[in-house]
Amino acid sequence: MANTVVITGGTAGIGLATAEKFAREGWNVGVVARHEGRLAEVEVRLRGLGARAVAVKADVADRDQVDAAADRIAREFGPIDVWVNNAMSTLVSPAGEIAMDEFRRVTEVTYHGQVFGTLAALRHMRPRGRGAVIQINSVLGIRPFPLQSAYAGAKAAALGFTNALRAELDHEGVAVSLSTIFLPAVNTPQFGGWARNRTGRRQIAPNPVYDPRLCANAVFFTALHPRRDVWVGRTTMMASVLQRLWPNVGDLQARSGWEGQLSNEPMPELPGNLFEPGPGSAVIDGPFSDQVLGSRHTFVTSRQRDIAVIGGIGGLAVAAAALVGALRRR
Questions:
Q1: Cβ partners under 8 Å of residue 200, min gap 6
Q2: What pLDDT, on the 0 to 100 scale, is given for residue 247?
Q3: Where is the chain membrane-spanning (predicted)?
Q4: What 3-state class would DSSP assign to 88?
Q5: Least confident piece of the model among 10-24, 90-104, 294-308
Q6: For residues 113 and 226, what is the distance between their CA atoms, to the nearest angstrom?
């Protein structure tokens, strides 16, 4: 019997790349999103890859809709093995120019959407005593940049929720894994006009820019080999290390993020997909394919980090012991 994965925001970009990856690997795939036309397109597309697929219309900011989507997919395929919280919304704007309903909407989709998705997944996984929930986060959840205050705040909240819930599940002895995958700049339709933008200039993806399929590979790896944290691309790992060791330097670096996210091309305000789904068909790639790095396997897991840290501590201990021995022989 094939395993089942549910992917929110699965009709474009990273979500669609992930859905296709699982479909090619023989999984049953449930996709949750808002745009009916893309949902129908993706369902046909995934079935064309040989998978059993169902696409469900739901707004992840509505808990009842998320619960109903989970129940429908479980009725269709049986137990849910992996749930990927990928849906997000954002806007590019100075914080003082963001309306309260915009802050609220980004939070409801990007943070509450992960909360509701996780709780729906646990409702199905907890009785079976197994399963994996994968949270798609961002380098901005580690090292916030200007013009991204609403999104960075929501991602930081999602990370705090995930870490607190992991401790609760450990305390209760519930064998459901919670993993967070931190992403760099990725070439998705977000940069093609889906992000609300009121800067008066076109948003660009700051280099280095990564392939959505790299992110999909990281998600699939994590589904099979659960890890606490996974960093995709060298920029996310570097940002994580810098934020922990020397956050003031990270602040200095972030100053360049304002201009680094904007081209000189003027443009009118974009409404984006904040309150309504973005236009267009189901596509994976955004407008910066010529900048994308070629590798689809550049990600680091917390286990690799832990091995490096333990190795470093061991090396220091050996060096310290050798120094003490040398001093005693004097």
A1: 266, 267, 268, 269
A2: 87
A3: 307-327
A4: coil
A5: 294-308
A6: 21
Strand partners, 311: none
Per-domain boundaries in the chain: 4-297
- In this prediction, residues 153-181 reach a mean pLDDT of 98
Annotated catalytic residue within 151, 194, 220, 299: 151
Nearest to 277 by CA among 5, 39, 15: 39
The DSSP H or E segment spanning 323 is helix 302-328
CA distance 116 to 121: 9
The pLDDT value recorded for residue 304 is: 53
Give the model's pLDDT for residue 117.
98
- Burial class of residue 41 (count of CB atoms within 10 Å of its CB; 0-12, 13-18, 19+): middle
Number of alpha carbons in the 13 Å side-chain half-sphere of residue 201: 14
Closest CA to 288 of 7, 13, 9, 15: 13
What is 4-297's CATH number, 3.40.50.300, 3.90.1150.10, 3.40.50.720, 3.30.565.10?
Answer: 3.40.50.720
Least confident of 147-161, 257-271, 303-317: 303-317
- Catalytic residue list contains 151: yes
The whole-model pTM stands at 0.89
Q: Please tell me the distance from the alpha carbon of residue 200 to that of residue 186, in angstroms, as a whole number.
A: 22
Closest to 219 in 3D by CA, of 8, 50, 1: 8
Query: Token digits for 239?
Result: 């940002």
Query: CA-based diameter of the chain, in Å?
Result: 80
Q: List the structure tokens of 162.
A: 């995930």
Whole-angstrom distance, CA of residue 254 vs CA of residue 269: 24
